Amino acid sequence: MTPDNIPDYPKSPSMGQMMHQPMLISSIIQHADRHFGGKEIVSRRVEGDIHRYTYRDCHKRARQMANALEKLGVRMGDRVATLAWNGYRHLELYYAISGSGAVLHTINPRLHPEQIAYIADHAEDSYVFFDLTFLDLVKSLAAHSKTVKGYIAMTDRHRMPAASGIPNLMCYEDLIENSSDRYAWPVFDENSASTLCYTSGTTGNPKGVLYSHRSTILHAYASSLPDALNVSGREVLMPVVPMFHVNAWGFPYSAALAGAKLVLPGPMLDGQSLHELIEQEGVTASAGVPTVWHGLLHYVERKSLGFKSFRRIIIGGSACPPAMMKSFREKHNVELLHTWGMTEMSPLGTVCTLQNHHMHLPQTEQEAILQKQGHVIYGVDMKIVDDAGNELPWDGRTCGNLLVRGPWVLESYFKNGDSEPAQLLQDGWLPTGDVATIDADGYMQITDRSKDVIKSGGEWIGSIELENVAMAHPAVQQAACIGVFHPKWDERPLLVVVKKADAEVTRDELIDSFAGKVAKWWTPDDVVFVDALPVGATGKILKNEIRNRLRHHRLPTI
Ligand code: ADP
Questions:
Q1: Neighbours of 166 (CB within 10 A)
Q2: CATH number of the domain encompassing residue 496
Q3: Does residue 183 contact residue 64 with C-beta atoms inside 8 Å?
Q4: Are 390 and 539 part of one and the same domain?
Q5: Residue 312 CB: number of other CB atoms within 10 A?
Q6: Range in 10-19, 167-176, 365-374, 452-461 with the lowest mean pLDDT
Q7: Cβ 543 under 6 angstroms from ligand 1
Q8: Helices and strands in the chain, H and E counts
Q9: What is the rounded distance in angstroms from the CA atom of residue 211 to the CA atom of residue 209?
Q10: pLDDT reported for residue 420
Q11: 491 and 366 in one domain?
Q12: 2 pLDDT band (50/70/90 cuts)?
């Protein structure tokens, strides 16, 4: 079965060549079992305890689960949803569902229950697997869903919740126990759908992004490269980025492909829990959004702790504050690797590592490069364009709309295939909604999301740079910069700040701290202190909500 949107390329006559083996997700877990079978997978369970087993055990249970799915009547292409944290059962489902030809639909449980109901309906999910933490969510979903035939609690018999308004409630461990581990992974077209993930829908309804086996495997290969996420068999990897958000940036696949020990932190993502797990399991590298690393940094500094084996943090999802990069490196000998991508890109687009001609540069210049979002990895191409679509120069100064393309980049959203591509893609390129510069070496730097750009007197002010300056102030824990109305300039920057506990700083001191760091006219006109910034379902600061709350703020410069 070839999807209709794949053009029929000319085929070369056979002259005797390589084997034709479709790239299928099941091949990754088969490889991990056969070649790294004894490597560990350690999970902090929802119950709070630590569970450990191996890739071999994971493969066995994934085969049992694949048999169970078959008995439940799940067929090729059917969507099967999960509402679950990073844990071994979720990993088994990653392989069992996609490997058997069905589509794994990871639902973000942090979305609003109404959005979850919308998503499950839109995806036409046939079954929903859930961690016990999400029992209430599942009850409300069950009351509305038109397509879900049954719900599976990811637990054992003793912890099963009382049947409580959830139709056809089943027990995960019972399904495993009652199923044989004799299962031959089916072979099918590598372009078949494997996984479905919805965007967080900060504007409008969430949109479905459907990955294929081929796109997933290509992404896993490419993301493992040394100048990408450098996934190797010597790493102990702890993806903090949730398995319900863009496949945990591909780590469930790339770790198995490389034979890395995998540590899955479950629901406890606070600084203390992460630090404990890092130290106990000898974690060498982890990945997640900046808010998580704020929590960890804050915890180790408060408790005067260090790290034994922890060397690398892969950070993305939002801009990495340079001050945090500096603290981790200088105080803890942990390097922050800045990456950029989006759900629509599986997610990886760029990673920031140095080239050999950068190695002789002074440290401050190297640091300035490493703060950028980085270089594309092979497989992704990018360009910046003006509003008329003309390509802009790679001079490190000119800002433009960032466009991307590649074999793991979205062509059209799930179920919108017939009508959308013409509007969505621009000459075969996907607009990212980000505004960026690219320098002569091909290093991209995001200056803003297009909807967050501050427009002052017809010129753009990049809010990320202003936030980075504010975050470098010792009294600032978090900062967001938004544009607010100004009668002369249309918009002027307003800085919204959360102070560190016990730290003091005034509005004027903060405004003065911008002197010499940004163009004078970029300096924020005012500062508002708040207790916390609103954060969305993927851990990102919700600028539109801040704009809403402060839309009547009157600047002192008016
Ligand atoms: P959502 O579902 O919230 O859109 P995504 O993870 O798909 O979640 O968000 C992608 C967007 O996140 C990008 O288009 C970009 O705006 C932002 N982003 C991701 N990584 C970075 C980064 N390193 N620096 C700045 N922005 C980033």
A1: 21
A2: 3.30.300.30
A3: yes
A4: no
A5: 19
A6: 10-19
A7: no
A8: 16, 25
A9: 7
A10: 56
A11: no
A12: very low
User: 143 C-alpha to center of ligand 1: Å?
Assistant: 33
Same domain? For 350 and 364 the reply is yes
- Is ligand 1 within 6 A of the CB of residue 353? no
Pocket flag, ligand 1, residue 432 (CB < 6 Å)? yes
pLDDT-based confidence at residue 144 (cuts at 50, 70, 90) = confident
Residue 310: which domain range? Answer: 269-412+424-449
Which residues are known catalytic residues?
Answer: 199, 344, 455, 460
User: Tens digits of per-residue pLDDT, 214-245?
Assistant: 999 999 999 999 999 999 999 999 999 999 99
Tokens of 282: 């000898």
Q: Does some domain include residue 80?
A: yes
Give pLDDT, residue 14: 77
Structure tokens at 378: 């092979």
Identify whether 396 is part of a domain: yes
Q: Which atom of ligand 1 is nearest to the CA of 201?
A: 2
Whether residues 436 and 487 fall in one domain: no
CA-CA distance, 434 to 40, in Å (whole number)?
39
Judge whether 151 and 168 are in contact, CB under 8 Å.
yes
Task: Using the mean position of ligand 1's atoms as its centre, give its distance from the Cα of residue 205 in Å.
Answer: 17
Answer yes or no: do 27 and 134 share one domain: yes
Which ligand 1 atom sits closest to the C-alpha of 199?
2
Out of 165, 187, 212, pick the residue that ends a domain. 212
Query: Does residue 157 have a pLDDT over 60?
Result: yes
401 lines ligand 1 (CB under 6 A): no
The candidate with the shortest Cα–Cα distance to 290, out of 318, 268, 311, is 318
End position of a domain, from candidates 196, 212, 228: 212
Strand 476-486 versus strand 490-499 pairing type: antiparallel
Q: In the prediction, which pLDDT does 362 show?
A: 97
Percent of the chain exceeding pLDDT 70 equals 97
pLDDT above 90: residue 192:
yes
**Does 470 fall in a domain?**
yes
Within this chain, do residues 315 and 464 fall inside the same structural domain, yes or no? no
145 Cα–ligand 1 center, Å: 30
Whether residues 433 and 476 fall in one domain: no
Query: What is the 344 CA–ligand 1 centroid distance (Å)?
Result: 10
Would the CB of 317 count as within 6 Å of ligand 1?
Answer: yes
Work out the burial of residue 118: count CB atoms within 10 Å of its CB; fewer than 13 is exposed, 13-18 middle, 19 or more buried: middle
Split at pLDDT 50, 70, 90, the class of 164 is confident
Q: CA-to-CA distance for 217 and 27, rounded, in angstroms?
A: 10
